[in-house]
Specification:
Strands 4, 5, 6, 7, 8, 9 and 10 form a seven-stranded antiparallel beta sheet that branches. Strands 11-12-13-17-18-22 form a six-stranded mixed beta sheet, sandwiched between helices. α1 runs antiparallel to α3. The chain is of the alpha+beta class. It contains 16 helices and 22 strands. Helices cover 29% and strands 19% of the residues.
Length: 577
């Protein structure tokens, strides 16, 4: 899996329809200066109508031939019809507005051939049962939408996305960022929600594992997004929506500065949750121990008088993560953020509780991709000998070009420890894995979307490792924990198929699959996991993570003693008869 590249997607480049003509993006400027939609309240009827509008708008975006060819500025068509839907006094009136709107798209030309439902073995089928839901849509609107569905062309092209030629994850090409729109703007804020919601509905391979009723997420989020009163509130509300997908890949990456706690400074220490305790495990600056008086093994119990458990509970809705281990990992990275200057701490030490004051200092801003949190691997070179019988290789600094030399150096050892408690520097799955298997061995299977049947996901052929003549004959210990995410998890999946391999550590972050970035109005950016990653027997990895063969978690006592208990367990397993 490639590295997580966080891209702030700007205004789309000049776009052309399939016949080579300019699209409506160049000719429709009706809302360039704003939607002119302002709301003080949102009534239950308006929520009902907006929810149906959002579902119908997304359905047409990916199914109506005029829209899939780029024939309308579909964002602006949403803003054009939205005031009428907001003014509709009931659902029947809302249906009438939508039917008139759809009729304005013109008569559908015949399709020869027309698309057919997705064939073959599917992981997910399109969630289109609502098209026949009489409690949601009137008979006329149901007929209109069914007519469009049955007459979508078999050409299976989409204006708003394509599938990556090699991997198959969606590439969202024409989702405009509208970075110059003045916020608050209820219309564009709702556009952001509906764009995100429908991309998940039709193009997320993990929509079924979110653990949420996605329709209810839409309904509950509509008033909160519409009524957000400033830019920061809008970003926070979108964060809360995104977090409900429960995917560590999917966050409002452009806006992490508004995620609580906020501030320009933090304590120059490294924290990690051991169980439910926030523990100091290291320092970010050489002088930090003396400057803060915090010691490795200190448990931060409260910050400025507020218990850490209370802070975690308050911030939880804004932290997108596949599982609790990844969520606490991300919270640990921001826990001490706040205003520059002194902060009051209550600290639990082995000798007893201590109240103290420490100074927050300016945090170093990280450019480029959003790295997962501090690695937990061993300091030093990528390859090390831990005694005559144990070789060690860490992926955070391993170069693919050096794999052959390192594996030659490991030859003859009883065991090789491959430390993946990090994010791999380079993609080494096949370069390294070929040394560990003695026959072609499958390790993963993907699912990918279907342009002709949005919402369907097909199984692909399994990925496999192939042996080379020089094979490592010793035991292989793979070290993982909550910082092992995405490419790290994929690498662990691959290498654990080695005949003498075991995974040691704790459950990983549970987010795998090539990423697909896209923009949201206001110059915001997010992404989704674009393909599904499963074991060859189709067992899931999303939210589950890589389950260790031997579970070993760091303990508070071990941290205070300066031990790496996971690494110690791997060495012991290698030396065990």
């Amino acid at each position: 899996m490639p590295a997580i590249a966080i891209v702030l997607v700007g205004t789309a480049p000049l776009a052309f329809s399939q016949d080579g003509r300019h699209t409506a993006f160049e000719t429709n400027h009706a809302f360039d200066a704003g939607s002119r939609i302002a709301l003080d309240t949102v009534t239950p009827v308006q929520v009902d109508n907006l929810a149906v509008l959002g579902k119908v708008w997304g359905f047409l975006k990916y199914h109506h031939p005029l829209i899939t060819a780029g024939g309308r500025q579909w964002d602006y068509e949403l803003l054009r019809v939205m005031p009428r839907m907001l003014a509709a006094p009931d659902r029947a009136a809302g249906d009438a507005v939508l039917r008139e709107w759809i009729a304005g798209l013109g008569t559908l030309a015949g399709c020869d051939p027309c698309a057919v439902p997705a064939q073959g073995e599917l992981h997910l089928r399109p969630a289109l049962q609502w098209l026949d839901d009489a409690s949601l849509l009137g008979a006329g609107l149901r007929a209109d939408l069914r007519h469009i569905y049955l007459r979508r062309p078999a050409s299976a092209s989409q204006f708003y996305l394509r599938l990556h030629e090699q991997v198959g994850n969606p590439v969202f090409e024409h989702e405009i960022a509208y970075e110059n729109i003045a916020l608050p703007d209820a219309g564009f804020q709702l556009l952001a929600l509906l764009r995100f919601w429908n991309i998940i509905e039709y193009w997320s391979p993990y929509r079924a594992t979110a653990g949420e009723n996605w329709d209810e997420v839409l309904r509950q989020s509509l008033p909160r997004i519409a009524l957000a009163r400033d830019r920061a509130s809008y970003q926070l509300e979108m964060m809360a929506v995104i977090a409900r997908l429960n995917d560590s890949h999917t966050n409002l990456w452009s806006s992490l500065h508004v995620r609580p706690p906020v501030g320009q400074c933090r304590l120059p220490v490294k924290l990690r949750f051991i169980g439910n305790s926030a523990v100091v495990v290291g320092y970010r600056e050489a002088e930090a121990e003396a400057a803060t008086r915090l010691q490795v093994g200190d448990v931060i119990a409260s910050i400025d008088g507020v218990p850490v458990a209370q802070l975690v509970a308050a911030w939880r809705p804004y932290y997108a993560a596949s599982n609790e281990a990844a969520r606490l990992r991300d919270m640990a990275g921001k826990l001490t953020t706040g205003a520059c200057g002194a902060t009051r701490l209550q600290v639990r030490r082995e000798q007893g509780d201590v109240e103290m004051t420490a100074q927050r200092v300016p945090a170093v801003r990280q450019a480029g991709r959003q790295a997962v949190q501090d690695t937990h691997d061993r300091e030093g070179e990528a390859f090390q000998r831990l005694g005559d019988d144990v070789a060690y290789l860490k992926l955070s600094s391993l170069k693919r070009a050096d794999v052959a030399a390192h594996m030659a150096a490991a030859a003859g050892s009883r065991g090789l420890i491959i430390d993946i408690r990090n994010y791999p520097r380079e993609f080494v799955v096949f370069a390294l894995g070929s040394y560990l298997v003695d026959r072609p061995t499958e390790f993963a299977r993907f699912t990918k979307g279907d342009l002709g049947n949005p919402g369907a996901f097909h199984w692909t052929n399994a990925m496999a490792l192939y042996p080379q003549a020089l094979r490592y004959a010793g035991k292989v210990m793979l070290l993982v924990d909550e910082v092992s995410q995405s490419q790290a998890e994929y690498t662990a999946m691959a290498l654990r198929v080695a005949p003498r391999a075991k995974v040691i550590g704790s459950t990983t972050a549970g987010a795998d699959g090539n990423i697909s970035p896209f923009a949201l109005p206001g110059g915001l950016s997010t992404l989704i996991s674009g393909i599904g990653v499963f074991y060859p027997d189709r067992r899931p990895t999303q939210r589950v993570g890589i389950i260790p063969d031997i579970e070993v978690r760091p303990t508070l006592a071990g941290i205070r003693a300066g031990r790496d208990e996971v690494l110690e367990a791997a060495i012991a397993e290698i030396r065990r008869q």
